[in-house]
Design a protein that fits this description.
Keywords: Phosphoprotein. Pfam families: CheW (PF01584), Response_reg (PF00072). InterPro entries: Chemotax_regulator_CheV, CheW-like_dom_sf, CheW-lke_dom, CheY-like_superfamily, Sig_transdc_resp-reg_receiver. With about 300 residues, the protein is α/β, with parallel strands linked by helices. It has two domains: about 150 residues, CheA-289, Domain 4 (OB fold (Dihydrolipoamide Acetyltransferase, E2P)); about 140 residues, 3-Layer(aba) Sandwich (Rossmann fold), CATH 3.40.50. It contains eight helices and 15 strands. The strands form three sheets. Strands 8-1-2-10-9 form a five-stranded mixed β-sheet, with no helix packed on it. Helix 5 packs parallel to helix 6.
C-alpha cells in the first residue's frame, strides 16, 4: 500500500489521518504523514549483538533500513507470523525505519480535539502512548514512535552535548512558551534549554492550553513581546496540533507579532510547505536542538 500524499489535509485544520494497526489484539495509530508505504513482510537479516528491539535489517529500493520489532518495543506478547502481518515503512526525525506489526486495518480521518491525553494513572514519563481516540467503538492508542527509537538509540534524542558547542550565553530574561505533548521530550527540552541559558520557559502539553495561556497574556496592556518573546511548538499533539496553534496565533492581532518555531519530527522537504502556509517563522526537525537554539537567538535578539 503506497501512501498517497495527495490525501493529506490543508495546513491548520486541526485534523489528521491516522493508520490503524494491530499488535496482537491491541489497536494503535500512526499519523499518515509519517508513513511512506505499507508492504508485505520481507526477508530480514539479523545483525549480531544489535538491540533486542531490532528484528534486523532489510534492503528496500536500494536503501538498507532497520526493522523494529514493535511488539517487543512495547513489551507486548509476540505471535507467530501470519498473512496479516505488515511492514510499515516510516520517515520521521530525518530517518527511515520499518515497523513490523501484526496487521493494518484502515485509515481514519479525525480531529486532534477528539484525541485525549492519556491519564497519569496509567501513563508515566517512560510510557509510549501520547493520545487515545475512540474509533468504531474501539480504543486506538497513538504511539510515541520517537520514544521507541530513543529507547533503541539514545543518541538519536535531544542531548545537552549539542548545546555545549554553542558556548555560554545569558538569556535568563527571555520568556519562551513551548507546546510539546511528550513528557520525555518536555523534560529533555527543559534541560537543554536551561543549558542554553533559557530559564524562563513555560511548557504546555498541547496547543489548546498554550493558546489559552497566550490569549490571556495578550489581554494585558502593553506590547505582547514585552511578556513573551517566542513560541516553540511540536506538530502532533492531542486537542490542538502545532499547525493549528500557529495559524491561530497569526490570526490574532495581539499575538501575530510572536515568532513561532515548529520543532517536530515531521519536518521534511515534502512537508515544509505546511508550516510556511500557517505562518511559522522557522521549522526545525527533531532532534536538532542546536539549530533550534540558534534560531531562538536569531528571533529574540
Amino acid at each position: 500500500m503506497d501512501m498517497n500524499k495527495g490525501i493529506l489535509l490543508d495546513s491548520g485544520t486541526n485534523e489528521l489521518e491516522l493508520v490503524e494497526f494491530l499488535i496482537g489484539e491491541n489497536r494503535f495509530g500512526i499519523n499518515v504523514i509519517k508513513v511512506k508505504e505499507i508492504i508485505q513482510p520481507a526477508e530480514v537479516t539479523v545483525v549480531p549483538h544489535s538491540h533486542p528491539n531490532i528484528a534486523g535489517i532489510m534492503e528496500l529500493r536500494g536503501e538498507v533500513l532497520p526493522v523494529i520489532h514493535t511488539a517487543k518495543a512495547l513489551n507486548l506478547p509476540d505471535q507467530e507470523p501470519t498473512r496479516a502481518d505488515k511492514f510499515i515503512v516510516t520517515e520521521f526525525n530525518n530517518q527511515k525505519l520499518i515497523f513490523h506489526v501484526h496487521g493494518v486495518t484502515q485509515i481514519h480521518r479525525v480531529t486532534w480535539d477528539h484525541i485525549e491525553k492519556p491519564s497519569s494513572m496509567y501513563q508515566g514519563l517512560e510510557a509510549h502512548v501520547t493520545g487515545v481516540v475512540q474509533l468504531n467503538e474501539k480504543m486506538v492508542l497513538m504511539l510515541d514512535f520517537e520514544k521507541i527509537v530513543v529507547d533503541i538509540d539514545p543518541s538519536s534524542g535531544l542531548t545537552i552535548d549539542r548545546i555545549k558547542k554553542l558556548g555560554k550565553r545569558e538569556r535568563s530574561g527571555k520568556k519562551i512558551v513551548v507546546a510539546e505533548d511528550s513528557p520525555m521530550l518536555r523534560k529533555l527540552l527543559k534541560e537543554t534549554l536551561e543549558e542554553a541559558g533559557f530559564s524562563e520557559v513555560e511548557f504546555f502539553e498541547n496547543g489548546r492550553d498554550a493558546l489559552e495561556f497566550l490569549e490571556n497574556m495578550a489581554s494585558a496592556d502593553g506590547p505582547m513581546r514585552d511578556r513573551i518573546q517566542l513560541v516553540i511548538t511540536d506538530i502532533e499533539m492531542p486537542q490542538m496540533d502545532g499547525h493549528h496553534l500557529t495559524k491561530r496565533i497569526k490570526e490574532n492581532t495581539r499575538l501575530q507579532e510572536l515568532p513561532v518555531i515548529i520543532f517536530s519530527s515531521l519536518i521534511t522537504n515534502d512537508l515544509m510547505h505546511k508550516g510556511v502556509k500557517v505562518g511559522a517563522a522557522a521549522q526545525v526537525s527533531k532532534p536538532e536542538i542546536d539549530k533550534l537554539v540558534a534560531l531562538i537567538d536569531q528571533f529574540i535578539l
